[in-house]
Specification:
The structure is a homodimer.
Chain A: H1 3-7, H2 13-21, E1 27-28, H3 41-53, H4 70-84, E2 98-102, H5 103-115, E3 121-126, H6 130-139, E4 142-149, E5 152-153, H7 155-167, E6 174-180, H8 193-206, E7 213-217, E8 243-248, E9 259-263, H9 266-279, H10 285-297, H11 299-325, E10 331-332, E11 340-344, H12 356-364, E12 366-367, E13 369-370, E14 387-391, H13 400-414
Helix pairs in contact in A: 3-10, 4-10, 5-6, 5-9, 7-8, 11-13, 12-13
Amino acid sequence: VSAKAARTCEPPISDLIARALHTPGLISFAAGLVDEEMLPAKEVAAATRRVFAKASGRLALQYGTTPGLPALRQALVAHIAKLEGQPAARMGFDADDILLTTGSQQSLYLIAEALLDPGDIVIAANPSYFVYTGTLASIGARVLTVPMDEQGMQVAEVGRLLQKLDAANELSRVKFIYCTSFFQNPTGLTLSLRRRRELLDLARRYSRGHRILVVEDAAYRELQYDGRALPSIKSFDRANQYTVLTQTFSKPFAPGLKLGYTVMPPDLMQQVLRLKGNHDFGSANLSQWLALDLLRSGAYRRQVQKLKKQYTRKRDLLLRAMRDSFPPGIQWTMPQGGLYTWVTMPANVDTGPNGQLFARCLAQGALYVPGEYAYGPDAHGQIDRRHLRLCFGQVRTRDIKEGVARLARAMTAVLGKGEEAGRG
Amino acid sequence: VSAKAARTCEPPISDLIARALHTPGLISFAAGLVDEEMLPAKEVAAATRRVFAKASGRLALQYGTTPGLPALRQALVAHIAKLEGQPAARMGFDADDILLTTGSQQSLYLIAEALLDPGDIVIAANPSYFVYTGTLASIGARVLTVPMDEQGMQVAEVGRLLQKLDAANELSRVKFIYCTSFFQNPTGLTLSLRRRRELLDLARRYSRGHRILVVEDAAYRELQYDGRALPSIKSFDRANQYTVLTQTFSKPFAPGLKLGYTVMPPDLMQQVLRLKGNHDFGSANLSQWLALDLLRSGAYRRQVQKLKKQYTRKRDLLLRAMRDSFPPGIQWTMPQGGLYTWVTMPANVDTGPNGQLFARCLAQGALYVPGEYAYGPDAHGQIDRRHLRLCFGQVRTRDIKEGVARLARAMTAVLGKGEEAGRG
């Protein structure tokens, strides 16, 4: 096999999925899937009818183009501008700067492929979205991490890291900073407004011999339940030079269309388009025609509203159940959007797949994602093993309380407080 | 940019497409698109209704899995077995050995990515499908070519090449032999039955230190208009060890689903799945659910029949018009299937994009694909420039005669026989 294939590991989550399938009655807070009862079957069926009712609609079944359907890219310019609260022209991009991909994952992959040679450096938050850090490792990149706090990625630490790399003459290997800026997977945390500007400034400042990009993953952006809507990092990059912004139809609408979209600087677009030409010369055209209809008809907007309502309810149920039944000494994040909360156990607990807590949760019939999957080594080479990710996306509303009770019993047992085991 | 991005060129066809767009009234035999009037809008609309009529149908909008929908992979085992005229078990594969991808191009890409490091060797026919040889070059592979004749790729020449590489101690760099075995793009030629066995035997025989695969691209297989249906090379590989077989819904049904499928040996599948996990963790799920319905309902089969009828008509019109109006001294293939015929001009004619013939055709209002796009250098480093590819897929039936007349006028003029220019 190729060197790249040899570097490409089985994703750790595969093992979890296999365990879940072999445990009947399991309540899973693990997989990052969406709410199944809310999948917009009627809306997509109606969109299909509308598309094919017109004679031109049959072109949805022809080959598309590598960048994707022009009218959809145009509609997405307007969509992003609305989210940002300002016209796209003020942010220096138009439809030519938008790429449609097979989910936003493909876009993130292509950007990594366009920019990274083995040994190159990507800076990311710790923890980060583990599918993508796995992808980066497969390409041979070194992922250097900085810690997070309640305001998201610690941008001051990014600055210190860049300074250190500069001093060590390694700045030339740094190609981009990866940041999930809204309701991050896995923590649910959001990068503060101030840090958005600061991160972009850092990228600009250190783009000396070559450009250092900010790759902003905004998959969860539209699933906001409370708080003030923030502009993207991209929105401050007035000439569309230093940031890439990826969004998707998967989380705010439906994963089955498998459609992501990305705004990127024109020179990067040129490189990425050539690569995508070799990968598949364009994502599924039918999905693109449907997405265009869904945006134009308002069905997309209505579905986002419905999902926000449903996920707000599920998040509230989850957080309340945790508050009511988790034993003392455990902390968790209060996400204002997205699908995740991030739980921190006392320092002596190992949440890993071979640890006691994981085994006891499974025995109780509940599944979570061990935090170590999302952690790279910190500056001292240590991996933090006391966290876990809970996803309230797919779990059924009626199972949340019972699922949390099961987690709570396992936690209580592991923390040596057997007498509280029945509390939930 | 990365070394890979630096190796990745603009596909030559882009320039053709741009020229076509800027020439109103052009009759194009260039793009490998399918017949637009035949796109199965009603059939796909009906399939969508059927899928969403069931409550389970909304799962078409959830995430799928990386290998693809199990029921569809199962249905495709049966579909391939029917094409081969023997049960899949006799060919050593089942649904676990089938991967669904974003068109068969993605599968061909992933296989190259899994197997090739820069400097590795792929053996291909000359000419070959140029999108894929471009992909191989982007990955850094060396594509060594062997000539074709009326029976397809000259397999004896593959044997001689392997022998030579063995003697030069380069056999370890040879990873696979790429062969479009049915109605090849660009020539329309088919590998003979005898050569199918011989090619597999060669791959087996030279798989000493490592395996040398046959990658069989069968995109056009189902679009057969005359002659006897041949089994695939894969069908002779009883233990599913030495061949990869790629097929697609794009050519025999509709490109807009963007769905390809591939049978491959289990160990290769494992590598490819990991890579695909990083690319996109699964192609569009909705397309897969629709494809399953289309296969089960018989709509797929009926569409293949319709397309075969239509393309037979177009092929016959094209070949008749060529016979009636092309000046003497020109030869072309008589394809029994697929979408292409391959035209050979006298040796002194340069069909390239900067040659006289191309310019004159464009001036007349007709477009073809220059043969040099599909040619690698031969054993003497020469590129043959006297061929051109005509595609009868997208051109409208009523435009074929006029389009050929325009080509004929240009050819006549270039061949210095101006007095025949008006004949068509």
